[in-house]
Input
Amino acid sequence: MVKELRETVARILRVPYYQKRLGELGITQAEDIQSLKDFQRLPLTSKEDLRLNYPFGLMAEPVDNLVRVHASSGTTGKPTVVGYTRKDVQLWAEIVANGLRLAGVTSKDVVQVAYGYGLFTGGMGLHYGCEELGALVVPISGGNTQRQLMLMKDFGTTVLACTPSYALYLAESLEETGISRDELRLRIGIFGAEPWTEGMREEIESRLGIKAIDIYGLSEIMGPGVAIECEGQHGLHIDPHFYPEVLDENGSPLPEGKKGELVFTTLEKEGFPVLRYRTKDLTTLRYGKCEHCGHEGWTMDRVSARVDDMLIIRGVNVFPSQVEEGILAVGGLEPHYLLVVERVGTLDQLEVWVEVNTASFLDEVRELENLQERVKRSIEDIIGISVRVRLVEPKSIPRSEGKAKRVIDKRKG
Output
């Protein structure tokens, strides 16, 4: 592994920004990296580094050698831009295809890609991987839900690729249209781009009658396909073209099985090699051989939360995924919710809006009050602070065709 990491350092040193940063540590050539300990001395890369070098300052190849760029959303300013050579694009397709094979997708499948196409890597990443695999791709992109369902039925879609929150919305819309689940051929879902819980997986699998597979990726590293579950669903197998680390809050490497921030280094990317990139995703790592599929290498647990999704309420760290876990542990509710945070006087207050299902909505007031109290206790048992719970009527919380919006923080701005 040290040899592969050394080769990445050689590519990185073509970039003036990295030359300066590594030079400050006395590293001027790849041969200075003789061990993993040497490698772990290297600086971490953050999204801010990409923004400082917008648009092409971190490319290790001339722009003339690039054949494609992608970019993440620029909600806080300029987007983060990544570039791909022709070899990078082919490598990405092969990585995604290999991952889809682990998930049980074959060349005989019809894959409906309902991730967004464009600068976002989700749609095109899955698209090229499916073509590399030899599957039939339905490149419908996100949105237009009724058309999604019509084509799903008419084209005999067997694999659905989208965010888990949109999969739930499709399931809900399917029930409203009156299309029987038996009229569809769906068998696998490839879901990612946002944290989701085991309870959410069970909900999706039950309502769509499929096996829901978690896929992981981010544009700064490559796009979707960096890691994916096999059919055994016991963690996401990391593709060997990426070297993972998990770090504590001080940036020190943690041993296997300890939860921390996930960091990746690319091993073969030409256009935009990345050194120790901070993903802000929280997970644990383990190394070994999967008993189900035989994959040998690093496996990561499902991403439980993102560092920047964390809310600090009255000194306690709270993640939306913890609240979701508490909600899904109680029956009579839909998996749609909002966290509303505001400051009352000097005290932060968290109110959780949760949709009840149609049957519960028709219950007597006393039964709804009991349901509200059960949800409140379930959430408080997990997060350890008091919350207010507001039960709202079915379909009153806005649905998302991409990443779900879970938090309204009224303390900001």
Observations:
- The longest helix spans residues 365-383.
- The mean pLDDT is 93.
- The CA atoms of residues 102 and 230 lie 5 Å apart.
